[in-house]
Amino acid sequence: MTAQTIVVDPVTRIEGHLRIEAQFDGSTITQASSSGTMVRGIEIILQGRDPRDAWAFAQRICGVCTLVHGLASVRAVEDALKYTIPANAQLIRNLMIAAQFVHDHVMHFYHLHALDWVDVVSALKADPKATSALAQSISTYARSSPGYFTEVQNRVKKLVESGQLGIFANAYWGHPGYKLPPEANLMAVAHYLDALAWQREVVQLQTIFGGKNPHPNVLVGGAPSAISVHTGAGTGTTAVNEVGLQRVAAVIEQMRNFVDQVYLPDILAIGSFYKDWFKTGYGEGTGNFLTYGDFPALGSQDPKTFLIPRGAILGRDLSHIHEVDLNAEEDIQEFVSHSWYDYQGGKDVGLHPYRGETKLNYSGPPSPYKNLDTSASYSWLKSPRWKGHAMETGPLARVLMLYANGHEPTKELADKSLAQLGLPLDALFSTMGRTAARALECKILADAMPQWYDALIANIKAGDVRTFNDALWEPSSWPRHAQGVGFVEAPRGALAHWIIIDDGKISNYQAVVPTTWNAGPRDVNGTEGPYEAALKGHTLQDPKQPLEILRTIHSFDPCLACAVHVVDPDGEELIRVRVQ
Ligand code: NFE
Ligand code: MG
Predict the structure, then answer these.
(1) What's the order of all strands across the beta sheet hosting 481-490?
(2) With contact defined as beta carbons under 8 Å apart, do 452 and 94 qualify?
């Protein structure tokens, strides 16, 4: 077979618009390019505004990780002003962030990623009785009777017979890369539907503390949730009361149950049929991992107390965690050598976000008919680098960081899960390793939620209902010039917003988000971003149906809307796979 270029544009079952091009030599991918194909420029919109309002704009960067940009923004302002928040606000933030993780990870697996591994059409051939036996052998989940799986199968049958597959349309059903037996496929499809109903319930945690979802409210100086245990339902108050707090406890329980009984067992069951996707290095990316850290211990903002530690891992070396400084000019820099932006100092300099610039300069396609020119600019994403290295952020980075730091629950869970699959720790450096890491951290965070909830309740019982510190609310109390960084571990990875405040107004605002780290283009030295590096060396069974590309790209859980801080102006396009 002659060399060819495979174009997947747009990649579907992600957020935002991503184009992947792969050079295919007939058996393997020799080179890949990742391009974000749209832009809006929230950072520009923020200039000149009141820093206390910034979160409401910044939060609109994304409709998927709908909380975290708001929080990164208020934390940036608080860091700049040295603004402390009450303990209750910190606990509420921990609970909201963790809830965002659990919600987002389950949705990502079932609704965006599972269909890369699960063949919906094959589920029709399953024996519901055998499916029930399989489900009961791996979990105590109650919805596992033969009757239940018969009902699910009938629903899917109706869909297929109608010829209108809807959400299940346009996949590569029947591709030889699908390895699950029909019963495992049916079980996973049933859980796909269950996860839809589950997420409607658990999202209530955000509405109780943040008023609504998506885009719950946040607040510079605290949490926008007044607490009043003496007001019941129907008293006309919007304060968080006993009813709301009890509902939060129930939601935490629902989250933990679904992760323990459905998500984690499914990942291990599905993973056991795809051991080749756990091969060390296959779909790995750069082997460099970055976390900013999050979930402070009560009463502290010191990164040393974070549940998820901060650090960098280079070249898979878990024995040496490098320190990460978000304020150091030389450490985190964004490059635009291959991005549709200009810097005043030229295309080849790197800028720390405090000095960051957002000057758009679109200089060429992609159009569906023209390939990316990787010697020039080819993406709306910038290329963030840590000390010059291309770094992966996200669940795999965090699980490795927890593991390397000796976090006992992580070690126990990871070791047990890998042992069950008969795999070594190195198997995590792979496409399936990344997908499994997401499920592991989901459990670690769901299990951490009760301690924050209990601490919140204990404070309230002791009479402390404070959620907001008004000490620095008025700009007259601010210094004339201030700068700060707000960071959050977001579901897709390390997120930070850098803000500069002059005379009470924003004079510069830069967001560097998880998907920019992961999906960014080559940098000034030609070093590829993690997506690009991860696809190299992939074999494809059928280049016209590049399922393998989707598996690895989806394992990162792309959000291009975040990555370019955008909304698409040009409307949707169906997936287009073009082989030249
Ligand atoms: Ni739009 Fe986001 C997360 C952030 S992404 S989803 O998680 O920040 O890269
Ligand atoms: Mg940015």
Answers:
(1) 481-490, 493-502, 505-512
(2) yes
Q: Which of 181-190, 364-373, 423-432 has the lowest mean pLDDT?
A: 364-373
Alpha-carbon span 314 to 290, nearest angstrom? 9
State the CB neighbour count (10 A cutoff) for residue 499: 29
Q: 382, 559, 564, 565: which to mutate for ligand 1, most atoms within 8 A of CB?
A: 559
CA of 514 to the centre of ligand 1 (A): 6
Q: How far is CA 532 from the centre of its chain?
A: 18
The Å distance, Cα 384 to ligand 2 centre, comes to 9
What is the distance between the alpha carbons of residues 95 and 296, in angstroms, rounded to a whole number? 11
Sign of CA dihedral 486, 408, 518, 274: negative
Residues in the chain, overall count: 580
Single-letter amino acid code for the residue at 324: V
Among all bound ligands, the one having the nearest atom to the CA of 394 is: 1
E strand spans, 126-169? none
Q: How far is the CA of 68 from the centre of ligand 2 (A)?
A: 15
Q: Which atom of ligand 1 is nearest to the CA of 511?
A: 8
Nearest residue to 108 (alpha-carbon basis) of 574, 563, 555:
555
The partner residues of 20 in beta bridges, in order of sequence, read 8, 34
Spatial distance between the Cα atoms of 531 and 34, rounded to a whole number of angstroms: 7
Report the candidate in 99, 114, 243 with the shortest Cα–Cα distance to residue 171: 114
Residue 506 predicted with pLDDT over 50 = yes
Distance 55 CA to ligand 1 centre (A): 15
Evaluated on CA atoms 276, 281, 283, 284, the torsion sign reads positive
Q: Residues 122, 178: contact at Cβ < 8 Å?
A: yes
**pTM (predicted TM-score):** 0.95
What integer pLDDT is reported at residue 572 of this predicted model? 35
- Give the residues surrounding ligand 1 with Cβ less than 6 Å away: 15, 62, 64-65, 68-69, 490-492, 495, 513-515, 559, 561-563
- pLDDT, tens digit, for every residue of 186-242? 999 999 999 999 999 999 999 999 999 999 999 999 999 899 877 655 555 678 999
Structural domains for the chain: 4-115+200-578 (1.10.645.10)
With 50 as the cut, is the pLDDT of residue 575 above it?
Answer: no
User: Is the alpha carbon torsion for 73, 75, 78, 79 positive or negative?
Assistant: negative
Q: Which residues contact 333 (CB under 8 A, 6 or more apart)?
A: 350, 351, 352, 384, 385
Mutate to test the pocket of ligand 1, among 17, 513, 566 (most ligand atoms within 8 A of CB): 513
Distance from Cα 344 to the centre of ligand 2, integer Å: 16
Residue whose structure tokens are 């296959």: 282
